[in-house]
Amino acid sequence: MTNYVLKDLIEISKDGEWGKSSPFEKSIEMMCIRGTDFEDIRGGNYENAPKRHIPKHIAEYKKLRPLDLIIETAGGSKGRITGRTVLLKPSLFERAELPVICASFSRFIRLRCELCDQEFVFWYLQHLYFSGNLNRYHTQHTGVSRFQWTIFSEREKINIPSLHVQRKIAGILSAYDDLIENNLRRIKILEEMARSLYREWFVSFRFPGHEKVQMIDSPLGKIPKGWEVTSLGQQLSVLETGKRPKGGIQDIDEGIPSIGAENINGIANHDFNKEKLISRDFFEQMRKGIVRDRDVAIYKDGAYIGRSSYFRDGYPHTECCVNEHVFLLRTAGKQITQNMLFLWLQEPDTIYTIRSTNANAAQPGINQQGISGIKLILPDEKIAEQFDRIVEPMLGGIIALAKKSHNLHRTRDLLLPKLISGELDVSELDIAVPEKESA
């Protein structure tokens, strides 16, 4: 291995703000990367990135290209450590409708490697970030987290193996990322299929045989004959919340995961890095808030009330609970199954209705009475059973893919420090790597 400081390996671009431009000036419309897009880009998703008009004379020389590295030098408040890095994969540019640029180079630096493999440098920076080595370059200035890039690039010594070994290491780690990205795409397709089917049957009322069913009046408008309008509370056997130990959750290495509002965000979106643990003794004393298989959860109070999640098939854990900011819901009858309940809660109209029950003046929040009183339309048991039979493999497939991705994450994260440090020697491994020019 050869010892370098990072500034000797790379070409950087940090040009400050690029200014503002309207669509009517000499400008180019471009897709812009922000810090909030990092996780989406890592997951292979770039559809939600904003679009902005950039002056032509700036856009041309700041345009990003495949395999560029973007490192974050300023982040949000709340003490989050900066220094995150994202690698812009070629697939992102293939799907992007417009040229790509950073939203602001005052918060990001673009890196292009001259003497080594671009993907290897990305994984090296990932190792430094997740191992905590970048913490010493982290500061707080006027309430904003900042990464001292200049000091880091001039002082941090990094050991670089031969180019062939670099590519082998990058190839191994990137293969895990590619599998995770593929799983995320498949999850998105299955979720869209399940949601579309729910809307077709229970919003548009185009279920099998609907042509022969008479529509009748109801408090919620026209509904199929044989269906009914009821309140959510009448259909639930459980509507409860959990709790935390007095004084809050302490940092402990072993215990039972306690899921809070930050992890109530749809299906298969659990962020294991945001988990808190409670002691087993406290968990065994809990009478409410213990997660059972197929429980549906609702974000109870805070900025995103109404968001929901679905815990099933041992994901995210076979044993866990929720805290006092989360409601658990279990249905009682056959007219609405847990699958149907989750999909109903994902509907924008349902989320709006839940938020409209906000019972708090200061911090947004919902209570049991408000949730229980929400009206919904239920089919007859035959239609409910038929729908559940069709949608079950879709939702089950989503969870199976999420489990695979979690295992891939864990394996990749275990390999990362061992490969970067050279503890695992791959020089003699028969790994096919593409011969390419260094970026």
General description of the model:
With 439 residues, the chain is α+β, with helices and mostly antiparallel strands. The protein has two domains: 2-160, Adenine-n6-DNA-methyltransferase TaqI, Chain A, domain 2 (Alpha-Beta Complex); 209-381, Adenine-n6-DNA-methyltransferase TaqI, Chain A, domain 2 (Alpha-Beta Complex). 33% of the residues lie in helices and 21% in strands. It contains eleven helices and 22 strands. The chain has a four-stranded antiparallel β-sheet. A four-stranded antiparallel β-sheet has the order 15-21-18-19, with helices on one face. A hairpin with a 2-residue loop joins strand 9 and strand 10 (144-147). The longest helix has 41 residues, at 381-421. It is globular and about 75 Å long. The two termini are 20 Å apart.
Question: Keywords for this structure?
Answer:
alpha+beta, 11 helices, 2 domains, 439 residues, Adenine-n6-DNA-methyltransferase TaqI, Chain A, domain 2, four-stranded antiparallel beta sheet
Instruction: For the record, give the distance between the C-alpha atoms at the N and C termini, rounded to a whole number.
Output: 20 Å
Sheet-strand content, in percent, reads: 15-25%
CATH superfamily of the largest domain: DNA methylase specificity domains
Integer average pLDDT: 86
> Which structural class matches the secondary elements?
alpha+beta
Largest sheet properties: 4 strands, antiparallel
